[in-house]
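This part of the workshop introduces the protein records we will be handling. An example says more than a description, so a record of this kind follows:
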Amino acid sequence: MKNPTWNSHRYATTKGLGSICYGSFLVALIRTLKAFAKSAAQRGNALGCICYICLAYLEWLARYFSVYAFVQVAIYGVSFWQAAKNTWQLLTTKGFDAIINDDLSNLVLAAGAIAGGVITSLIGGLLGYLFFVNYGHFVGIVFGVLLAIVGLYIGYFFTLEFMFAIASAIKAIFVCWAEDPAALKETHPLCYELMAQAWRKVYNIGGVNEINTLRDLD
């Protein structure tokens, strides 16, 4: 069986690249118009203020929709407009679930990025102190604090880059699950059972055993 992840990646970076660029262009166009509206609003233009508010909301919608539309382009090989139509249908039927999915996953991913920053901060601070303590205790503390701050920023942003990839994977799984959960049952039945049980628990459907571990996936 061909790897669907590789096939989606190949399509997104070749035939589907135009659709993805087109969607990104629309978002960039809205942001540009919003910048002009903001400039007019800062000069006291009432119409510019109204346009800025509308365009800010439109930008949020475009950015939110485009992420799921790009997933549709990569997985199903459709055009951007067809992907946008599919995304609209998906969010009108599963919109609340999508928002919850994003909120919960973003909290976890943000916590992971912060944890990565804290770990590198501690390592940087410790190394800074150990390397420079020979020049004096105060010097060691100063360099330890400086390297801890640098390590915090580096660790946070580097970890955040990895979290973006995980966030994209979460959105792809959500789209696949919402569109065709039976496909997951055929390819990964154990994963399907875990997700189905969690789904039933969320909607208070009885007869679900408590899941405490993912060991069955090994």
Q: What stands out?
A: Residues 1-78 form one domain. The first helix runs from residue 4 to 12. Residues 205-218 have pLDDT under 50 and may be disordered.
